[in-house]
Amino acid sequence: MSKQRDNDADRELEQRTGKYEWVESTDLTVEAPIPNQNETLQMKKLEGKTALITGGGTGIGRGIALAFAREGAKIAICARRWGPIEATVAELKTLGADAIGITMDQGVEEDCIRSVRETLESLGGLDILVNNASVVGQVSPVASLELNEWEQAMRVNLTGLMLMSREAVKVMIHQKSGNVVNISSNVGRRGLANRAPYVCSKWAMHGFAQTLALETAKDGIRVNTICPGPVITDRLLGAMKKMADARGISPEEVKMGWEAESPMDRFATIEECAAVALFLASDDSSSMTGQALNVSTGVLMS
Fold first, then answer.
1. Run of H or E including 103
2. What is the pTM of this model?
3. pLDDT one-digit tens code per residue, 235-255
4. What is the pLDDT of residues 257-293, one digit of tens each?
5. Is residue 110 helix, strand or coil?
6. Alpha helices in the chain (DSSP H)
7. Strands 178-183, 128-131: parallel, antiparallel or unpaired by DSSP?
8. Catalytic amino acids?
9. Residue 23: what pLDDT?
């Protein structure tokens, strides 16, 4: 009777827990469930999502586009120059991403409206906006600033940010979900001599982001900001050259001075910035909105 009870118990266990196989051990014989292959496959973090990335042809924007594509997103990248756009779109497609490129000037309202419209028409939706495009602006003391240089920096870096966000958020409010990731700067949280137009436009980005976050939270939209420290890109190299000329020193001296500000004795990388952008654009950061994260190798700590 005892053996019969054991057999009955085995059959009951199999009915409750599914098919089992025997796994031989050097010490004892144990039962282990056969794994379900479908359960072991992890969905990519941005599977089924569409992202629009401004300034996506080069630098940090390109790095973010590649990171998003690896996680399953469809990508639209916008920039002023077609050459870098075309090259990056080709890279995205080699990763298996559905990707398009759009030439546009973020400082022109009609271009901002068109970029969102073309994304919707070509890729079928818009779930993530990355506001990455900006201009360096005039590098000089405030006493030497030219009004047109100041206004251009504000038009592209701040007004363009607003226009892109406005058009994207219209779509996101309708669908009751969405994500806006802004790329600011470490100098969006501190001053920097000879860089007033750029610094002021980046400071203002934080106020705009927090305001937009408050306005759209109940619509399922999150708005967050990244503050990179110096990252070696073509644009940064140009900015260092301008800073060096303004101060009468070499670009290498500017670079060494900036590195010395970092407790980690180095610059952040494009890949590190892209990883944080992916975190903010994915459900990994689902409770975060209105936040600004420093990616500055310790230059900023609050």
1. strand 99-103
2. 0.83
3. 778 888 888 888 888 988 888
4. 888 889 999 989 999 999 999 999 999 999 999 999 9
5. helix
6. 2-17, 37-40, 59-70, 82-94, 109-123, 147-154, 160-175, 196-216, 234-247, 251-260, 270-281
7. parallel
8. 198
9. 39
- Mean of the pLDDT values across residues 53-69? 97
Q: Which of these, 121, 103, 98, lies nearest to 46 by C-alpha position? A: 98
CA diameter of the chain: 100
178-183 and 221-228 strand pairing: parallel
In DSSP terms, 224 is beta-bridged to: 181
**162, 85 Cβ separation under 8 angstroms:** no
Which tokens belong to 82?
Answer: 């077609």
Contact by Cβ (8 Å): 251, 209: no
* Domains of the chain, CATH where assigned: 2-36 (no CATH), 46-295 (3.40.50.720)
Alpha-carbon dihedral 19, 20, 21, 23, rounded to 10 degrees? 160
pLDDT in tens, 188-197: 999 999 999 9
Please return the burial class of 81, using the count of CB atoms within 10 Å of its CB with bins 0-12, 13-18 and 19+: exposed
pLDDT at 16: 46
